[in-house]
Amino acid sequence: MKLGICLPHYGRPIEPSRLAQLAARAEEVGLDSVWVTDHVVVPRDVALIYRDDMLDPLAVLPWLAGVTERIALGTSVIVLPYRSPLPVAKLLASVDVLSSGRLIVGVAVGWLEGEFAALGVPFRERGRRTDEAIELFRAAWTQEYPEVKTPNHQLSGVKVSPMPLQKPRPPILVGGASDAALRRAARLGDGWHASGMAPSAFRASALAMANHWKDAGREGSPELTLRVPLLLDGIHRPAVDPALLGTRHVVRGPIAAAAKELRQYQTAGCSHVALELSYSTYPAILDTIDILAEEIRPLLDQRDR
Questions:
Q1: Host H or E run for residue 74
Q2: How many domains does the structure of the chain reveal?
Q3: Residue 300's closest CA among 7, 27, 31?
Q4: Which residues are 272's β-sheet partners?
């Protein structure tokens, strides 16, 4: 199972040098990925770590491409209805080129109704707009002169550039826990990106995802991925209010217990996990990155064998 970290570009004073240090350390020790997160505005009465000091993920991605060389760059996730899809497709393709083909595209419909209201996007249309955006991404990333018509866009006789470096295109992982999200992932994505889900719930949804994949007539198997917070006993030192964790499932405890729980996800079919370390101080995040590489990864690799 591949291991990555979510970059804490939110919830604390913005320090680009420290963000770069985290990305560099993750790459140096051999972790597989660094992920960014999407919110544009957050209502005052909603307690989320993303409310304060949040850099835009679509600005952070090309910066990451320049401060790293080998590690994969993922989005966990881009909320597709927030923005016009074609400019986003162009930006993401540009990141794939600038990073030498290291982009992983996680997408979702979004859930924060107040944010949709502030952006002037109809909340009830978010599913349809997400489907449309994925369809446009797939066309724009594989056809120089795409011929595609969607409810709000018609591409005909125009050239798309740049084309992504990855062929046929960067992987698209669809987030969400609902049955509609799983069906969307099976129809339009290359896999599923779960979030804050206990191993038992992940296993059940993975089985449902496999059935939807088969029903959609897809060959092979979907990629199953996960974003989940990680708090290690003796290492984690709070940097933000713990209440901001909300009700999400957290992998926590001593190193051995955390590794055991990560193996449960692995056994359920998870091939890549993005670990949310952002609730800790920067020194604790650096220590956790080292532990992931030196102590936890060997335990997961043993399970692979």
A1: strand 72-79
A2: 1
A3: 31
A4: 2, 225
Bin 142: left if φ > 0, else alpha if -120 < ψ < 50, else beta.
Answer: alpha
Residue 207 makes CB contacts below 8 A (sequence gap 6+) with none
Contact 24, 71 (CB under 8 A): no
Asked if residue 273 lies in contact with residue 226, where contact means CB atoms within 8 angstroms, the answer is yes
Residues 145-203 pLDDT 10s: 999 999 999 999 999 999 999 999 999 999 999 999 999 999 999 999 999 999 999 99
Express each pLDDT in 22-67 by its tens digit.
Answer: 999 999 999 999 999 999 999 999 999 999 999 999 999 999 999 9
CATH code of residue 279: 3.20.20.30
Domain that holds residue 173: 2-304
* Alpha-carbon span 141 to 208, nearest angstrom: 29
End-to-end Cα separation, the chain, in angstroms: 11
At residue 188, what is the residue type? L
Task: Give the three-class secondary structure for 299.
Answer: helix
Q: How do beta strands 191-195 and 223-232 pair?
A: parallel
Does residue 224 come out as left (phi exceeding 0), alpha (psi in the -120 to 50 range) or beta?
Answer: beta
Read off the tokens for 144: 């120089």
For the record, the structure tokens of 136 come out as 């446009």
| This model's pTM is above 0.70 | yes
Tell me, what DSSP letter sits at residue 56? P
Q: How many CB atoms lie within 10 A of CB 278?
A: 22
